User: Fold this.
Amino acid sequence: MYRLLVENIADMVVRCDGAFKPSYVSPAAKEVLGYEPYELLGRSCLDLVHPNDRPQVEAAVGRLGSSAPLLGQVFRMRRKDGSCIWLEARYRHLSDDGGVLATLRDVTARQTADQGHPAREAQGDCDGLIGLVGRRCFDTRLEQEFRRAQRQELPLGLVLIDVDEIHAFKDRYGHGATDDCLSQIGRVAAGALRRPGDIAARHDGERFGVLLPATDEAGVMLVAGQIHAAVMGLGILNDGGVHGIVTVSAGASAIIPSGADDVPTDLVAAAKLALYQAKLAGRNRVRSAVPMTRG
Assistant:
């Protein structure tokens, strides 16, 4: 009877080991994520979590135990077709073997309605390769955070990251290796986020953008430096490059919008200028733009 119930409810039920690798996936996986249950067996469910949300999911799973046997959270996950949906998860710690029983429910319509965006935007504006939000979502959030910074007289920071010599890398190693390279760098950008309001996006081509509300120039430079160092730490081989590994250049900017004439493109233009200066100085470095304010 229990099996009949589990296999016929709309919610997706997953039994995982301590590494979050499923040993059982209910048939609802096909409806919720577009995968047949067998396609998810043995692979970590964390690989499908949106990179911006993965740290909080890992933290929640890590807290599960005898002292916290039940936990719940809402996060984004990537479907088989590359679109992103919001899931509400309920985790139960299994004391007999340290595993996890998770129930996942699609709450995209509710979540996007709460945020004032149509559900189809949340599903469609996710980069299928990298998992970061796309340019459309980034531009929307930039506008929102810029106006909020303007009202509250707070700084708004932006880091633009560009992969150095990526076209030569693609010519040498092919599209598959390039996709994997970009995916790893995208995860690095997402891993630099520390607050719910921060956002990492596939900004343009091989360029990534990290938007940092309430962050001044020093804070933006700190994040940019962390991303730069983390990419170096990946050690992705690039025999044709100057440094022998894949590197990035980054431009950082921060603005305190204070006048009616200030527009979000001011912040982007300053970050692009700083990025251009980093490239001009020899690549593989971080440069900051002079903070822009109008009286």
Summary: The CA atoms of residues 192 and 226 lie 7 Å apart. The chain has two domains: 2-111, 127-288. The chain is about 40% helix and 25% strand. The chain has a mean pLDDT of 84.
